[in-house]
Amino acid sequence: MRPYRRPVAPTWWLSNRAYFLFIVRELTSVFIAAYLVLFLLLLHNIAVGREAYEAYLRFLATPGLLVFHVLALAAALFHTVTWFNLLPNIMVVRYGENRAPAIIIAGVNYVAWIAVSIFIAWIVLSR
Amino acid sequence: MSKPTMTLEVLRYRPEQDQAPRFQTYEVAYREDWVVLDAINHIKDQIDGTLSYRWSCRMGVCGSCGMMINGVPKLSCATFLKDYWPAPVRIEPLANFPIERDLVIVLDDFMEKLTSVKPWIIREEEKPLSEGEYRQSPAELARYKQFSMCINCMLCYAACPVYAMDPHFLGPAATALAQRYNMDSRDQGRRQREEVFASHVGIWDCTYVGECTVVCPANVDPAGAIQQAKLSSTLDWFKGVLMPWGER
Q1: What is the pTM for the complete model shown?
Q2: Nearest Cβ partner of B165 from A8, A16, A22?
Q3: B132-153 confidence digits (pLDDT tens)
Q4: Complex ipTM above 0.95?
Q5: Given CB atoms, is B15 within the 8 Å cutoff of chain A?
Q6: pLDDT reported for residue B1
Q7: CATH number, domain with residue B27
Q8: DSSP per residue over B75-113, as a string?
């Protein structure tokens, strides 16, 4: 017996739409990690003082970083939406022999997400 | 008028003469009511008796005839030629497994994984026969029934890129079947299976690509089973940390 093991092509993730979307979802974490680094630097500059904070805000307003923030937002939205859509397969809520419908499980998470987002927006935007 | 034909490109590997697999093309009469397995059986009977493949029930129950059909893992008994005709159809052995011969894969790895999760009812102590059977309500049955529909066809392994990268990964079907017993009200073996689940090639290796569920011919949702197992393991862990005095 001489079994043959076929090699996995490095382009395997391009062979199927689901694989491709999965890799995109994984890559969104790079944007989110980079955003968190910028956010930690923001907290650091607040701690340093008003001048450092304002200089950092000017740095964040440069075109390159604005583009980055738009991309990071798109990545975060893609990750969140695809993840919430998968949640009904993970969180199984049963009543008797029946399973709570997917739209309820996903819906509760969407509602909670929007509520938390509005709350944070209120804190940030109200002066 | 000549009768319509169908072209099948079949991956051949004969270890005694081939260094590597190669495609061989067969031309068969096209019939609308034929599935891919019918065409392969026709090749075996009428054209080339050396072609090797597995099949048994030809009705989607036994799980033997899984193949890659145009790159997608499918049961060849449930895949109609008419869905591909007149384009040629490409038939390969299930991906991610070593090829033994032609369309026959080496399935020892899956068998070992299946055994490792102890897919049977484990009791700490069997109650005596005189106490009667272990009873179960329809609601208790509903909790695991979907996972019990697995026919061990291994299409989910062929669809899993994590298994492709790391053949040590426990994989979809074995986890779904372990979860089937974990969720069975008559079973008490969850802690024994947890050792396999929690290992570095257990459930945490799964990154939830989800294709295993898409290709499953028995609607088992192994991807869901793995994530539900992760959720249960996490809750167990929290309980152990927050309430170390409690029974896990």
Answers
A1: 0.91
A2: A8
A3: 999 999 999 999 999 999 999 9
A4: no
A5: yes
A6: 63
A7: 3.10.20.30
A8: EGGG-BGGGTTTS-EEEEPPTTS-EEETTEEP-HHHHHH
